Amino acid sequence: MNRLKDKIKKKWKTMAGMTVMLMFVFVVGFAAKAHFTSRAADDDRDYVVLDSTGRQMTSGQEYTMRRKQDQLSASGAQDSNTKYTWQSLDATKLKISATPGNYGAEVTTTGINSTLYTQAVQYGTVGLTLTITENINGTNVSKTFTFTINIMFSVNEYLVKSTGVEMNKIFDTDERKAIIMDYHRDTETKLEFGTDATDSSQSQKLNLMFGDATKGSWNTSNKDVVKIDSNGIVATGPGKAKLTVTYQDTDMTKSDTDEIWVYVRPEVIYQSGDGTGTGNGKIVNSDVYTQSLVVKTGDYLDCQAKFDSNPNESISQKLIWVISKEVGGNTGKKVLIKDSLGNTGSEDKDDAELVWYPALKKYQLKAKAETYVVQFFVADTYPGFENLEVSTGKKYHCDPVNIAGGVQVKTNYEEKNVTINIGGHYVLTDAFNISLKGLTENFKGEIYTDVSAGIDGSKIIDFDNASWNITTKSTGKATLTVTKYPQQSANTNIPEYDTLQTVKVNITVMQTFSMNVSSIDMAIGASEQLYGTFGEDVTTETSQFKWEPSDDSNEYITVKPNGQYATIVAKKETPANTPVLVTLSWTSPDGVTLTTKCNVTVRKSVEEFHMVPDTLTIEQGQQSIIATDLTEKRNLIWLSSDPSVGTIEQISGTTNPSAMFTALKAGKTVITALNPDNNVYATCEITVTQPVTELAIGVVDQETKEVVQYDTYTTTLAEKYVFMKAIFGPSDTTEKETDFKWSVEGTSLSDVNPTDIAEIDSSGKVSMKREGDVYIRVQSANMYATCHLIIQSRPMTEITTDVSSLNMIKGDTYAVTASYQPEDASDTRMTWTSDDTKVATVNDKGVITAVGPGTTSIKATAVLPQSDDNHTTASATIVVNVRNRLTSIAFGSKAEYISVGSSKTVDVQFTPSENINSNVTFSSSDTTIFTVSKEGVITGVKEGVAMLSCVAEDLGQEGAITCMVYVTSSQVSATDFAIVPNEDTVYIGKTLQLTPVFTPENVTDRDVTWTTSDETKATVDANGVVTGVEEGTAVITATYKDTTNDNRVWTGTCIVTVEKAPVSATGFEVTPVTQNIVCGKKFTIKPQFTPEDTTNQNVIYQSLDETVVTVDSKGVVTGVGPGDAIVQCTAEDGGFNATVAVHVEKAVDFKLSPSTRELALGHSFTPKKVIKPTSANKTATWKSSNTSIATVSSSGKVKAKKIGTCTITCTLTKYKQSAKCKVKVRKLHTTVKLNKSNIRIGLKQSYKLKATVKSNAGKLPGVTWKSSNSRVLKVSSSGKITAKRVGVARVTVMTKDAIHAKASCKVRVIRRVSSIRLNTNYTVCYVGRSKKLHAILKPASASVKGVKWTSSDNKIVQVNSSGKIWGIAEGDAYITATTTDGSNKKARCFVKVVEPVPVTSIVIAQQDVTMKRGDKMKLSYSVLPSDTSDSIKFSSDNKRVATVDRKGNITAVGTGNATITILATSGVTSTVNVNVVAMNKSVLNLRQYDTETLIVHGTSDTVTWYSSNTRVAVVTNGKVVAKGTGTAYIYAYVNGCKVGCQINVSSVNNNKR
User: Fold this and answer.
1) DSSP string, 442-500
2) Is the pLDDT of residue 1216 over 90?
3) Count of C-beta atoms within a 10 Å radius of residue 800
4) For 142, which of 29, 133, 348, 1190 could close a Cys bridge (C-beta 3.0–4.6 Å)?
5) Are 1127 and 1099 in contact (CB under 8 A)?
6) pLDDT of amino acid 3
């Protein structure tokens, strides 16, 4: 809902009328930001319009309405008679009123100010205008404001505040309001759903703008914050959650959705660490607990946060804490100490903080003695400490929860008795719980010294007044006295400062002995090193140390001691809460024993785990928790394959190991969580996207291709197209322009479908179709932009066509060419209409089609009127006359006879006869014989013969006709007359031409009259053309009256029979198309004609293979013999052909098995009859082709008589079908073959050999099996071999017949591999580098230890036969090792190949090192960058002085100097100078007052000497003087390195040295 809003622009057209006020509505671009201020002539007026939230509204802008009923106000006038006229431009969506109720479309108020009440009726966009008319300096001046009100389906953003519930904007700059609730443990905070937002009695309920909220579908994003019950929402814990509502219309045709945020403030309970205190267990919100809360550092605050539904949610996603304090006495000024976002004050940032403990789900207060202000904000409501000051106006509205009337943290200021180990220190700021500033300004500390009593604490401890830190110097006791400055009482915030007295801090410094760690967690199979450490340097011997585990039986761990050091190996998982206790004891030479302990917990190694999720898409700049499905704590190593794309950082406080991923830039990276115990890992592939954050629309200039951004773009329809392009950013966005969605949207003031005005394709090309305005919208994944496209109106005022009238023949077309004025008209669309579509039609392109004879008008009319005032439209009219098409003409007679001087009109017959162009032209071939007029009147001139021609205007010369004209000297009378034919048949609807026959042929007068005896059966026209009407008979009579022979009358008749016309076939097919039958069976072919009533349905049938099938004249097909044949079917009417494919099978399927058999001489066998179907009659006769070779009995038993070949034939009696078997009689021979000749099987495994025996005996012989070494393997009578021990044996099979054929198989019994694993299942290899993988096989005694190495992608990583891998290219692949002994065991390693990262520098912690001979140390250095791919090597240039191993461990072997070089593969080096020193003596036995000089070999540097017991011996510059009996150690310090010599001093009276 917070995405970029649709900036809809409105254009209101001017409306004129005598009684309607003139209003101007301006279209304002959505990017405009200027504040609209109305100025009157000669005086200033600042009119201000405010909404119900106090926000100033700007004329021309759009405002979203999310309240069913709202309130606006206008002010700024100075004249009390100022008139405010408000008008809703669509009262069906928005009604207005001067008072609540009585809503309408227009409101007028008078006064300095005006208040308007609005009520949304339905959602949509509506215009609202305000006209202010004020008398300024005697003149009425009017100003009009226009607003676009966007009424949304929404949660109704109006709620009367009730206990624990309110609705407000979190910040003034927010677009929308949110719900703010208080959580209470004991009393439920609930906001009920309402049914009607207009019902004032429901003002404390959650309503919808439109609809019944109780019938909406509500969901919450976090049930730990707010839940939905049957009639409302209930606060369940502090934090924030998003409410989503979906509402379905009552007619179920539309659903709407809205969202609103809910912020729930916490209820805080105080819990003291020791269970005491007046506020312990109480609610300490300041509205409940008003006095100051007195606490101790380490006490707890419980905000009652819940994590049941979202266990991976962090507390920072719920709450933000802020700690501050007041300074400057009564000024009330507060300064920030610290907040949970990491912001701190300048001086006191370390004095106080709250630490979240996920296991306890509580905050622990860690603070120095002071009075603090502690506040809790719901996440995303904290405005920043600098904005908490509200003296200039409060800009945030979700108030924090303040703790009590302030929090007073008590001191621990009291006498201290402390034992500190040598080398330790004691921090008094922590001991007294007073800040360093508080101690330095209010207290002083002094080490107690009494010279007279021999007490000098400064020899035992040091005290630093600046840090208030006590450090140890030597073992012993000392006291520090702390005293306050009384004059500071008025200037300190330390609680109870006035009651504090002088206290002593008594320090006892002791020798220390401890383990390097006090507890360790180990996975089974892992090892760790433990060792003891001393606070003071002590000379030790290996025998003085003793390691003792509580696990005496070494069930769980094994301890491998080596003096002061020991290696712990984890063996078995320890019971819950029962670690193994390892104790290290050291006994000094004087018998004092010190002990130290370490708890060892052994847990199972994780064999498999997964990431949740295992793939993730996230936007740049966002964070996401990546969790595992592990259920207990594990020390995982988290890696990002590309830290530049995103970083991963382990987070604590979650129930399962998790890490926070931060997306830095667009790209892909793989997050790996690695368990270092056994290198088991899981991965999550993450894609970081950069969404579009800047989006606008530009128009492409088609000439320059330049793209210019437009909010509003005006063009004309004549341009036809507008090419739009998305302008978007940032430049590194991962969204593709091809994925953007373009659409056309309408304006609220137009009822025209926007796609009728313009359409847009996926590339941004706009096709303009008519005048109007629309919004072009481009949508990216998360936002959209719009451009107001205005297509201007420039209509046509005149239309001219290329013709005004047309004469057309039926079926013809004519494309009208139309022109218009003005030539640059923006809308050139025309509508074409015909007054009579039965005469002519016209399409939308202006193409006229002649349909039938007649006259009509075709009209072209402009779509748009000429103007808003002139509603007439330009048009043009074409008159179209349509006639039938003349197809032919003919003379009524083939010859014309006329006498000289006489005239007659030639009879011309037209087809068709009506609605045609009958214009013809006549001509005579010889006008000296006859002439012809244009009307067709011929006149005889002289005796002779000439040709008469007639040409029709529509047919031209190609349709010209002729006839012969005979001119006689006088008239010729007829001697006989008849018509032909005198009898004929005609079909209904068809015609028959009757012809008169004159005798002689040159009869002059040839006029004939035709009549029919029955017009219901047949008609006849004047030319003798008879037309069949109905079945029956009619007599056609021709009457000839010869005017040249006293009008003698002649008649002729023709009997005409009228019949129905035959129906012809148009198609033909048969069924079936294919048919399977057996010999002797029949089926009938069925013909099918189209149409079904075809008159002639006779078919000719023919079999194309009569050896397979025959067919008779009725289509009956009979199977004659097996095979395939085609039956061809031909229709007599039309000659159509169709075929039937027939497959004829035998009556039974019969064969002998075998069909060929070799048989040993004297042996016999019976062939098997194989018959289908099995139910067929099997009675048969048998016959041998040569009984001397083999005979066959009536039952089919064949017996071999002599060597040779013959054929055995079996004939089925019923079906007369035969089958044969070829028999070859030979001498007896047998072979046997095994399926394997050499096999390898595992110990205790079995395998069954298969023997194949071939013999020409009547029956196959059996076989016997034998093992050559039954201790290695045994073989059963069926050939199953079982391996008993490792070794080699041969299995032999032999036939039991006289041939004793044999075959054998060599069997090697091996011990197979039971399991295989690799030395690692995850590794990183660099491009161009190699690594060696090792396969570990079990058991170690496996016979075949070879493995085959393969890569899942040789383009990324390759591997050789020994397991050595090479990185080829960046990517991921698997290397698989497979056993070759047949066990097919596999193990694989996930290999990530990355580009090598060379070392740029090697940073040495200590460039010069001094060591004692015999000592060891590990080099301390850092390699940059830390993720380098280089390997590091070490070398010494003087191995007589110091050696270094491959891990960087230096061993001092002799005195002198050596240089240790650290070398990276890339060539970067760094060096360490090692100076090895040694004392010339390790033990001296002296008597009192003897002297001896000690020398430090190997150095020329300054040596500092020191005696551990100056009562026994003292030393100066190496010269030792024995003073008293006993033992002392002389130490020499060279550059921080200590070497020593034990001094044993005996009495001067003792002669022994």
Assistant:
1) HEEEEE-EETTTTEEGGGTEEEETTTTEEEE-SSEEEEEEEEE-GGGGGG---TTGGG-
2) no
3) 13
4) 133
5) no
6) 36
DSSP assignment of 831-858: EEEES-TTTEEE-TT-EEEE-SSEEEEE
Cβ partners under 8 Å of residue 12, min gap 6: 23, 24, 25, 89, 127, 146, 749
In this structure, the dihedral spanned by the alpha carbons of residues 453, 459, 463 and 469, taken in order and rounded to 10 degrees, is -120
Could you give the angle at the alpha carbon of 1484 between the alpha carbons of 1482 and 1489, nearest 5°? 145
Beta-sheet pairing, 784-792 with 712-716:
parallel
* 1517 neighbors 1506 (Cβ within 8 angstroms): no
Number of residues that this document lists for the chain: 1553
Spatial separation of the C-alpha atoms in residues 979 and 1283, rounded to whole Å: 119
Q: Nearest 5°: CA angle at 288, between 286 and 293?
A: 55
Average pLDDT over residues 1498-1505: 88
Pairwise CA distance, residues 389 & 407, whole Å? 20
- Please, are residues 563 and 539 in contact by the beta-carbon 8 Å criterion? no
Round to whole Å and give the CA distance between 1318 and 1320: 5
Which residue from 103, 7, 119 is spatially nearest to 67, judged by alpha carbons?
A: 119
**Measured between alpha carbons, how far is 67 from 73 in angstroms, rounded to an integer?**
16
Question: Taking the complete model, does pTM exceed 0.70, yes or no?
Answer: no
Residue type, 1283: A
| Cα–Cα distance for residue pair 780/765, rounded to 1 Å | 17
Asked whether the predicted pLDDT for residue 1485 surpasses 50, the reply is yes
Q: What angle do CA 438, 442, 443 make, to 5 degrees?
A: 105
* 784: β partners: 779
Nearest 5°: CA angle at 1223, between 1217 and 1229? 150
Q: Where does the pLDDT of residue 646 fall: very low under 50, low under 70, confident under 90, or very high at 90 and above?
A: very high
Query: Which of the four pLDDT bands, split at 50, 70 and 90, describes residue 481?
Result: very high
Phi, psi dihedral angles at 330 (to 5 degrees): -90, 10
* Cα–Cα distance for residue pair 1213/1217, rounded to 1 Å: 8
Cα 1297 to Cα 1319: distance, rounded to the nearest angstrom: 59
Is pLDDT at 9 greater than 70 in this prediction? no
- Would the pLDDT of 1359 be above 50? yes
Do the strands 1032-1042 and 1025-1028 form a parallel or antiparallel pair, or are they unpaired?
A: unpaired
For residues 1056 and 1034, the answer to whether their CB atoms sit within 8 Å is: yes
How many other β-carbons are positioned within 10 Å of the β-carbon of residue 976? 11
Give 884's DSSP letter: P
Per-position b or e across 256-267, b if 16+ CB within 10 A of its CB: bebebbbbbbbb
Handedness of CA 336, 337, 340, 343 (dihedral sign): positive
* Digit-coded pLDDT (tens) for 45-89: 889 999 888 888 988 888 889 999 999 999 999 999 999 999 998
pLDDT score, position 27: 30
**Does the pLDDT value for residue 806 go beyond 90?**
yes
* Amino acid at the residue 1528: A
Name the β-bridge partners of 1252: 1233
Largest separation between any pair of C-alpha atoms in the chain = 206
Q: Are 1351 and 1315 in contact (CB under 8 A)?
A: no
Which tokens sit at 1429?
């791919």
Q: Write down the residue that tokens 């002439």 correspond to.
A: 931
How many helices (H) and strands (E) the chain has is answered by 3, 144
Compute CA distances 441 → 338, 430, 491, whole Å: 22, 16, 10
Residue with tokens 């296991």: 359
User: Strand runs (DSSP E) across 557-621, as ranges?
Assistant: 557-562, 565-570, 580-587, 593-603, 611-612, 615-619
Q: Give the Cα-Cα-Cα angle 1293, 1295, 1296 (nearest 5 degrees).
A: 125
Q: Which residues contact 480 (CB under 8 A, 6 or more apart)?
A: 445, 446, 447, 448, 457, 461, 463, 470, 504, 505, 507
